[in-house]
């Protein structure tokens, strides 16, 4: 029995060896596959965490942009309001009215000749105007009745005062024309400033946010040099000294360059808008009644003169001089913003790091994508001013809804209002546009989805310029592209973006900003 068993084992030992080898190989292959699956799961988990971290940082960065714009916008608004003192012009008109009434009626009969309610309304309007800086429609209507064609008390005055009356009428006509140009220019300039400031802030904070994200990733990936050492430093997002990278002084100087737009660029932009408004609205009589459609067409003509009438003109329009100072003025801007003192050398303000940030910002501002997104932001802001505020406050047209849209489409074009009434709304809305709290115009701008897509492009591009280690982590970038590129719908009559599409390669790329940025970085990794 034993002998036969030995012979059987001897005859089949080759088969046993092959079977054992197969089993061993299968076991090793199984372990290898399990190891690879475990590694893939761990990698997917790490990538998911990295993507979520990036998404959270990006969304927080956009909220920081909103708060930053609200914080610094009143500075630009104050400079523009001081440069265009519409309220002073109206005060001069009120003085002319009082002098004229005194000459035609007499000081003792002024109070009795006018109804008490009218006198009280004029006093209240003027007091409210002087205290709040607002121009009321009733106030303008009262002054308007005394200007224009030279009727009323001027015709009833003595013949010897005709020359003086004509001189007063001419002066009042000049004042009315100046107030017409100034009130419209001020509102339009603030809209341009708000849109440009929103884009500039998006570029600046997303460039620095990108540096912050890469610095945190590289810091986590680097092995600790002394594991036994206890580190009590705060590297969380609430640590402002480590926010946006580790070069805090460079970041402060880079962000301070927005001083140029707030103090110089907005004024230069005001001159450009003033020339366009004079050319378009110059011949319009404040006493004239026009439709909302006509006012919208005139607004669009102003935009064409400022931004460009054709697609090629808009693409070649240079916004950089309004947003960033020329290189020879950078030291001056840093000094004015408190970053340097008068004794510091100018060479210290142009380090390699800040120069790279400025150059990249300039390239982004001069890009077709910037012009495309800016056009959409202006479409949204001008539409909110004309189609919402002017429509409701001056033309008394209720807000558009599904039930009233067709009715307004039929009868809305026949509704007319005096230009003077619209000027009152322009003056009041100027303060709302420059407000640092509950700003409806900023909300309308941020409703443009392409703005977030543009910020995503800024945030996710050019990783290789930050640090050599950053190239390895760029492949984890990802963001859903649903609804990206869906612009806020605005009415064609005040919109340049809807009348002539800028659908070049750069603009169409905004519809899949994160996907294209990811593909580009994956090719480098």
TrEMBL record:
Q: Does the keyword Cytoplasm apply?
A: no
Q: Where are the transmembrane segments?
A: 16-34
For bias type Low complexity, the affected ranges are 145-159, 495-513
Q: What are the annotated GO cellular component locations?
A: peroxisomal membrane
Can you cite a GO biological process for this protein?
protein import into peroxisome membrane
Which stretches does the entry tag as region Disordered?
Answer: 104-125, 145-167, 484-525
Single GO term (MF): protein-macromolecule adaptor activity
> Per UniProt, what is one Pfam family of this protein?
Peroxin-3
Supply the name of the protein: Peroxin-3
Could you tell me which species this protein originates from?
Answer: Melanomma pulvis-pyrius CBS 109.77
């Amino acid at each position: 029995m034993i002998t036969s068993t030995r012979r059987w084992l001897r005859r089949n030992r080759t088969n046993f060896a092959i079977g054992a080898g197969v089993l061993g190989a299968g076991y090793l292959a199984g372990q290898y596959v399990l190891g690879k699956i475990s590694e893939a799961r761990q990698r997917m988990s790490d990538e998911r965490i990295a993507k979520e971290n990036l998404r959270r940082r990006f969304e927080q960065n956009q909220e920081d942009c909103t708060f930053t714009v609200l914080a610094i916008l009143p500075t630009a608004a104050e400079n523009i309001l001081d440069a265009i003192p519409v309220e002073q012009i109206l005060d001069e008109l009120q003085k002319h009215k009082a002098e004229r009434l005194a000459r035609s009626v007499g000081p003792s009969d002024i109070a009795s000749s006018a109804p008490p309610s009218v006198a009280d309304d004029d006093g209240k309007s003027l007091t409210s105007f002087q205290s709040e800086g607002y121009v009321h429609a009733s106030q303008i209507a009262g002054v308007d009745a005394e200007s224009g064609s030279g009727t009323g008390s001027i015709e009833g005055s003595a013949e010897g005062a005709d020359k003086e009356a004509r001189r007063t009428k001419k002066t009042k006509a000049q004042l009315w024309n100046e107030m017409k140009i100034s009130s419209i220019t001020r509102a339009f300039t603030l809209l341009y400033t708000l849109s440009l400031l929103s884009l500039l802030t998006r570029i600046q904070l997303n460039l620095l946010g990108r540096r912050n994200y890469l610095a945190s990733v590289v810091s986590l990936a680097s092995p600790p040099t002394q594991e036994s050492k206890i580190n009590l430093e705060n590297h969380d997002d609430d640590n402002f000294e480590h926010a946006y990278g580790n070069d805090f002084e460079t970041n402060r100087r880079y962000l301070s360059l927005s001083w140029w737009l707030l103090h110089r660029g907005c004024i230069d932009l005001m001159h450009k808008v003033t020339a366009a408004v004079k050319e378009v609205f110059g011949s319009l009589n404040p006493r004239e009644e026009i439709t909302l459609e006509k006012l919208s067409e005139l607004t669009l003509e102003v935009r064409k003169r400022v931004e460009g009438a054709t697609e090629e003109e808009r693409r070649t329009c240079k916004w950089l001089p309004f947003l960033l100072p020329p290189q020879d003025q950078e030291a001056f801007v840093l000094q004015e913003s408190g970053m340097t003192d008068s004794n510091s050398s100018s060479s210290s303000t142009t380090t390699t790091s800040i120069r790279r940030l400025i150059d990249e910002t300039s390239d982004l501002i001069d890009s077709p994508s910037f012009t495309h997104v800016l056009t959409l932001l202006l479409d949204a802001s001008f539409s909110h001013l004309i189609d919402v505020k002017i429509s409701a406050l001056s033309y008394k047209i209720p807000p558009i809804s599904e039930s009233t849209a067709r009715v307004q489409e039929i009868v809305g074009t026949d509704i007319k209002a005096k230009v003077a009434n619209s000027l009152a709304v322009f003056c009041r809305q100027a303060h709302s546009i420059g407000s640092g709290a509950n700003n409806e115009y900023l909300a309308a701008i941020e409703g443009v989805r392409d703005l977030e897509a543009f910020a995503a492009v800024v945030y996710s591009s050019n990783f290789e310029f930050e640090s050599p280690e950053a190239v390895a982590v760029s492949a984890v970038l990802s963001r859903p592209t649903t609804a990206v590129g869906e612009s806020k719908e605005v009415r064609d009559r005040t919109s340049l973006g809807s009348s002539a599409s800028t659908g070049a390669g750069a603009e169409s790329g905004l519809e899949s900003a994160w996907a294209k940025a990811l593909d580009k970085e994956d090719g480098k990794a």
